[in-house]
Design goal:
The protein is an alpha/beta fold. 45% of the residues lie in helices and 12% in strands. The longest helix has 37 residues, at 132-168.
Length: 176
């Protein structure tokens, strides 16, 4: 189901420029190509032509928690929004923008989008940041990515401790 601000599909500024943002960990993991292809299809389904679309990418950024100003692609995207060059940002999902980010980075991005009337579109949601409910939803989904990362780290640490104890011959119920 698609989330959006009203029962009718929101009107995107099809006469303006759209941006696609992707983020991948390394050059060798060019997994952004299928993601970019999926988002290009989404853009075309929304009525954008290839000429209206600019792709911004960050390669080598390990985490979505890296500050905006340290992410070349995201920084260029924010600059384009501030210059009025972009009216819609399309991403595979919210975690491509902010995964494990602090609220300051998320809020800075939201503020720029709000001030320049820029919509953010994922396959599930069209975010119009003039709608407080959609601002809350966006922040919530970004934070879900952060909680997922924290759980994965805790799981890995627990697995390492268990392997270490088993290797040392200690009973798992025995205290150190």
């Amino acid at each position: 189901m698609l989330d959006h601000q009203s029962a009718s599909d929101p009107q995107l500024p099809l006469t303006g420029k759209a941006a696609i943002y992707t983020r991948v960990a390394t050059h060798t993991k060019r997994t952004h190509i299928p993601l970019t292809d999926d988002v290009l299809v989404l853009a075309q389904e929304r009525g954008y032509t290839p000429e209206q679309i600019t792709i911004y990418e960050d390669v080598g950024v390990v985490s979505g928690k890296t500050p905006i100003m340290s992410r070349e692609g995201l920084r260029a995207l924010v600059t384009a929004i501030q210059q009025g060059s972009i009216q819609t940002v399309l991403v595979a999902d919210e975690s491509r923008l902010f995964q494990d980010a602090d609220m300051l980075q998320i809020s800075l991005f939201l503020k720029v989008c709000f001030e320049h009337d820029v919509a953010v579109v994922t396959s599930q949601t069209v975010y119009d940041f003039t709608n407080p409910a959609l601002v809350t939803l966006f922040k919530s989904r970004c934070m879900q990515g952060r909680l997922y990362i924290e759980r994965q780290v805790q799981k890995r640490l627990l697995t390492r401790r268990t392997k270490k104890r088993n290797a040392s011959g200690k009973n798992p119920t025995q205290k150190d």
